[in-house]
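Writing this down once: the sequence line spells out the residues, with the fold written below as integer tokens. I am pasting one below:
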Amino acid sequence: MQAVSPGRSRAQDGSGIRTELPVTRQAPARARAYVRAMITERALATSSLGPPAEQLADDAALLTGELVTNALIHAGTPMELACRVETDPAADDALTGAVVEVYDRQPTATVPCAPDGTGSGRGLGLQIVSTLSDAWGVTYRHTEKAVWCRLTLPPPGETKVPVGPLSPVLYQQLQATEVAHPLARTEYRGQAGVGGHGGTFLAEASELLAGQLDEKMVAALATQLMVPRLADWCAVWLLAEDGGMRLTSVWHADEQLIGPLRGDLEAEAPPPKLWTAGTPWPWPQSAGTDDGGSALAFSLVSGGTYQGTLLIGQAGPPEITDSVAHIVEDVSRQVAQALVTARQYTRQTSISRALQRRQLPATLGRLPGMESAIVYEPHASGQTVGGDFYDLFPTGDGRWCFLLGDVQGKDVEAMSVTGLTRHLVRLLAREGHGVESVLRWLNAMMAEDAAEAVSARGEGARPRFLSMVYGELTPDPSAGGAQCRLASAGHPLPLRMTADGEVGSVVRSQLLLGIDEDAEFSADTFRIAPGETLLCVTDGVTERRDGQRLLDDGDGLAGILRTCAGMGAMAVAERVRQATHDFSPEPVEDDLAMVVLHAEAPAR
């Protein structure tokens, strides 16, 4: 454990924001979701989204769950969570890491942890925090205690290797332990022990495996189910896409033997073929006991397709009984079916994410003389893209174009419209079309799509409508700021804040796109002077509800923006985002998106 404070060596986002956590079993899950959202949002805003950022979000969420669980068990007081995302200003604000802090109100209590970083009690305790984080520690104050950890991204091209005694394979096992923990640890050894409980065990196995959509978690749960109920150790090999075998999970009743056992098993992989149920397997030397034991291999087969092999071992006499072998064979079939489901889900998710990533810009240009910030939070679970969309791009002739739109609906069809619209706007803008012309073309496209929907599906068809803010910026290098032409088609009106803090709308409201194919659109022209800010949001912000009250009732959004006087684009975006979340204790029920542009003073 590090006896230092987390410190602040890089630029950080959200450093002063804490969120309260319920003192319930839901606290770890809520904390993980909050940290994952903070990191993903920052990665999107800095064009850092990719495998490294996703790994950082996964690791941070895992450690957050451990810290919150620790506070829940050992402190039992109201808790607060803070997540600071670190960036490197010298590298275009690229993501570099994150610091997670969990506060409780028991400042005199110590954190249960052995000197070597291992924990006692539930699962692996704080050992995983010590191993996976770059630094961690405890900060004591008069009225509270903060347990924190820091994670950093490795340099490009390098792989982060965990330090300390915890093997990387145990990360998944820790999650499996949490899932399997509610089950009673009843021993089913020998003929007598199984007789009355086989049906109950199979029912519990089915319940645990049902709905698991990650093959590593399925394998981890399988080993947790077997040990110590039916065996002293268990291992699962899975068939990889290249036809080879991958040792995915190993578990032993003595956790100290997991590492050596894995080493022995990796030396000789089972061949990828169908096995007779309960085929004898050589006893690994590292499995424990001088007297050896018996080990059996079971094929994981579903629908006639081989998925992998499950090994179980029991030390010393007696040998594994036929009754136990039959139960393991039944569980193996359940595991195989769960693996098929998880692999199908993984393939579909991979395809979906690849398609979703094409709906939003991979990178955003750096607008000369302007600071820009994007907030994007899709509401739909498991999606990186919803019905809201944004873009900021140069046209090549000195103009920069930006947009923020919202397609009616939150389903996959809405997502497909976002990608089509964004690409069409880029094409039209680079062909020289102005703001009015771009909106006319989009309106015609949406109206034609609505007519085709009615023609194909009748009057019951639900045509798609589109609201959008679209503008052109012409930067002024000498005087600073930019000339702006802007239009709002059925969208919440953009707000401009002057350098002295006055806030007002700058455009007129016009018709939604797709309602009337003959509609005409116009744009307003104004200047964004140095020190001024332009805020564009979707209705997920303005229509955030608290009972019967909406956030923008009584010019609520303008009031929030006034509190941002003197801030840059990133700070304004974070202030508005947090105010939107804090407006109601209920979860956000819509996509949230905003674009913030702040004119900087010209360089001298």
